[in-house]
Design a protein that fits this description.
By secondary structure, the chain is an alpha+beta fold. The protein has a single domain (about 1-84), classed as Multidrug-efflux Transporter Regulator, Chain: A, Domain 2 (Orthogonal Bundle). Helices cover about 55% and strands about 15% of the residues. It is built from 6 helices and 3 strands; from the N terminus they run H-E-H-H-E-E-H-H-H. It has helices at about 1-5, 15-20, 25-35, 50-60, 60-65, 70-84, and strands at about 10-15, 40-45, 45-50. A 3-stranded antiparallel β-sheet has the order 1-3-2. Helix 2 (about 15-20) packs across helix 3. It is globular and about 40 Å long. The termini are close together.
């Protein structure tokens, strides 16, 4: 479901693009990268995150248990629950 939802999204995104896409603050995305919840590659001081890494994180228990979800993330979970 997440792959279909994000099909139009480029394969690689910056932290700012992930932040805009998911509704999470860029500091939150950076924290997820630092904690290795989301895998990123640092090239010349700029992180690049693969779409598959975002999908992998959003599908984890850690993401579901996050009590401070963005509005976008809550909407995705609701869509997932209604498609079961």
């Amino acid at each position: 479901m997440l792959e279909d939802l994000l099909s139009a999204v480029p394969d690689t995104l910056t932290v700012d693009e992930v932040s805009e896409l998911t509704g999470y603050h860029r500091r939150t995305i950076l924290r997820y990268v630092q904690r290795k919840y989301i895998y990123a590659v640092n090239i010349m001081g700029k992180y690049y995150i693969s779409k598959s890494s975002i999908i992998n994180y959003l599908a984890t228990d850690k993401a579901f248990k996050n009590t401070q979800k963005s509005e976008w993330h809550e909407d995705v979970i609701l869509k997932f629950q209604t498609t079961k």
